[in-house]
Write a structure and sequence with these properties.
79 residues, mainly alpha
Length: 79
């Protein structure tokens, strides 16, 4: 699953629906060259974004969290 050491480019490539999550958190620069190599942790630190919050949202997007069912497929037990 998604973790802080993955590159932003890798995350977007594997889970294109995460683009909206990045935008929601103020990271709309996904097209820049550094996003392909920068890790998620490096990116959020550079933008002053809470790592745990974006990781949770990214995981929910990647696992197709369904709020009507109240569960996801990530196994984290948080949502």
């Amino acid at each position: 699953m998604i973790n802080k050491d993955m590159s932003i480019g890798e995350i977007v490539e594997k889970w294109p629906n995460t683009v909206e999550v990045f935008k929601k958190h103020g990271m709309g620069c996904l097209g820049c060259a550094i996003a392909h190599f920068e890790t998620l942790e490096q990116g959020v630190n550079a933008h002053g974004i809470d790592l745990d919050a974006i990781l949770c949202d990214l995981t929910m997007a990647a696992t197709r969290y369904n709020p009507d069912e109240g569960k996801c497929n990530c196994g984290c037990g948080k949502h």
